[in-house]
Design goal:
By secondary structure, the chain is of the alpha/beta class. The chain has two domains: 129 residues, NAD(P)-binding Rossmann-like Domain (Rossmann fold), CATH 3.40.50; 182 residues, NAD(P)-binding Rossmann-like Domain (Rossmann fold, 3-Layer(aba) Sandwich), CATH 3.40.50. Helices cover 35% and strands 14% of the residues. The protein is built from twelve helices and twelve strands. Strands 8-7-6-9-10-11-12 form a seven-stranded parallel sheet, sandwiched between helices. It has a five-stranded parallel sheet with strand order 2-1-3-4-5, covered by helices on one side. Helix 8 links the parallel strand 7 and strand 8. Helix 5 crosses helix 7. The protein is globular and about 65 Å long.
């Protein structure tokens, strides 16, 4: 039986559907690329989450017909090499929109309402902490969204409806008139957004243009009572500059789901700041989102294996010249 190598855990529905389609799901014994390269040789497909798939693993996958990217971002995937060898990459551009938008708003709440600190204080017996910590509402604040794609739009919609927030956006590709129709003002520059927003939410992909986009100079423009929420990619923000601003209380706080590195030593400054709330790159890890994502990947892998063009290709240009292993 042909098999699909699963690099990192996915929802059980994905395993079930792959089996029904005649493709055996096999878990990799470890998610590092050396291990994957050793175990991927006979696979017709592979699914990976934030571990991605590198050139070495692709070179070892002599029978692979399709790679399934669990989510939207493909920065850990060697897309250029996949294009070179004609390997189709399917992805799930719509399945995580609600989950990520909800977590972005959750981080806004957690930071502005001091939820993590209150939890620690109450568990330590300090009920007087309500008199000691400063809280803020989201009501009618200005939300600045960097990257106004599907997730940015859903976040804006929810914040407008629930909290009557004014929404501004920095997203160069978007049409100003279209944004205006959604009740959103397009900022001509990132600096404009950084100066005006009370809450800044990142929802942009990591590209050469967005790497380090929220730089030291941009962070310096933020209001003293503003917060930054990042559900995009860690390298989009100058992490060292953000840590300095948090330490020096030049901004009110940050809510982070992503980092420059997702393996931080115990003495990493972010782990010891009271004005930052951290999550383990878990925005898209709700049960509902994981189920939608695994099911859509299984369906698309079936499509490719059976010779049908799938609905969501990262690299549609390779479809007509896709690899057909011997």
């Amino acid at each position: 039986m042909s098999y699909c190598l699963i690099v990192q855990p996915i929802h059980e529905i994905g395993f079930k559907m792959l089996k029904e389609y005649g493709i055996e799901p096999r878990m990799a014994s470890a998610p590092d690329m050396d291990t994957v390269a050793r175990e991927i040789g006979g696979a017709v497909a592979c699914i990976s989450r934030n571990a991605g798939l590198n050139r070495k693993a692709m070179q070892a996958a002599k029978k692979m017909l399709v790679f399934g990217n669990h989510g939207i971002g493909v920065d850990p995937v060697d897309v250029a090499y996949a294009n070179e060898i004609g390997l189709p990459i399917v992805f799930t551009p719509y399945t995580n929109i609600q989950s990520v938008a909800e977590q972005a708003i959750g981080l806004m709440f957690a930071v502005h309402r001091q939820l993590a600190r209150f939890d620690r204080e109450v568990k330590g017996g300090n009920f007087k902490s309500r008199f000691q910590l400063t809280q803020h509402e989201l009501w009618k604040k200005t939300l600045g969204i960097i990257g106004f794609g599907r997730i940015g739009r859903r976040t804006a919609q929810m914040c407008q409806a629930a909290f009557e927030m004014t929404v501004i956006a920095y997203s160069p590709p978007e049409d100003e008139a279209e944004l205006a129709g959604l009740g959103v003002r397009k900022c001509a520059t990132l600096a404009e957004l950084m100066r005006e927003a009370d809450v800044i939410a990142l929802h942009t992909q990591l590209t050469p243009e967005t790497r380090g986009l929220v730089s030291r100079d941009m962070i310096a423009l933020m209001k003293p009572d503003a917060i930054l929420v990042n559900n995009a990619r860690g390298p989009c923000v100058d992490e060292a500059a953000l840590i300095e601003a948090l330490k020096e209380k030049r901004i009110a706080g940050a809510g982070l789901d992503v980092y420059v590195s997702e393996s931080m030593p115990p003495d990493h400054p972010l782990l010891h700041l009271d004005n930052v709330v951290l999550a383990p790159h878990a925005a898209g890890s709700t049960v509902e989102c994981l189920e939608r994502t695994a099911a859509q990947l299984a369906d698309q892998i079936k499509d490719v294996v059976e010779g049908r063009r799938p609905p969501h290709l990262i690299n549609p240009q390779v479809w007509e010249r896709r690899r057909i292993p011997a």
